[in-house]
Design brief:
This protein has 226 residues and is mostly helical. It has helices at residues 3-15, 33-47, 51-63, 70-77, 84-100, 108-125, 132-137, 140-158, 163-172, 178-193, 202-210, 216-224.
Length: 226
Amino acid sequence: MKKVLVIFMMMFVAGACASVQEEEYVSPYYMTEEEHKKINEEICRLEEPVRDLEARYWAGRIATGGDVTYEELEKNSHHWFGGEECNRRLMEKIRQNLDTGNTHPLTQEEEELLEQVNQAARAVIMPATQDKKLIASLTAEQCIELKGRYWAWEIVHEKWITLEELKKYAATTWSCPADYNRRVIEEIEKNVKSKHIVPLNEREAYINDACTELDCEDWQESSSNK
């Protein structure tokens, strides 16, 4: 289930929408207020029918005492697409579920319904995820290199997330195999330690979005056979 990946990508892309950074860098993810508003409205519309399922999913994750707390999720929700009001309602529903003990796991049918919504939301936020030709041409090393530069820039220049937080997500919520996630973290660390991080240009940012569709399981198998 790619629920976690999609939710955090919503957060990550939204967090990269600052207009001008150091050295007059303009983020390739930059969008106008009107564009951002339209995406928020569409994401909220898509999620409205499954908000109860989404809230129960997160309440269950929190209740197990595993990889996320309510406080962490509430902080992250300020960076999600969907709009402030839409995300506030979700967080209120999660709190309500926690208070009433409504944290039982989703059924397979419910997970599949959420995944359908996730796919639709992913297409709105990251059109590159629908570029089948590009996705088929991607290599794991190409994606690792782009992710390493992207996250290093976010850590060092945007400063809305830390390396330690990313390490936690890599170990607990990223959907790829542990070896692949370790390589991504190593690439991020290498770039963070460097004196000059090369930000992604518009084309690279598009490819980086497509990398969320990379079949990383194949990378694990091919790597283990080397």
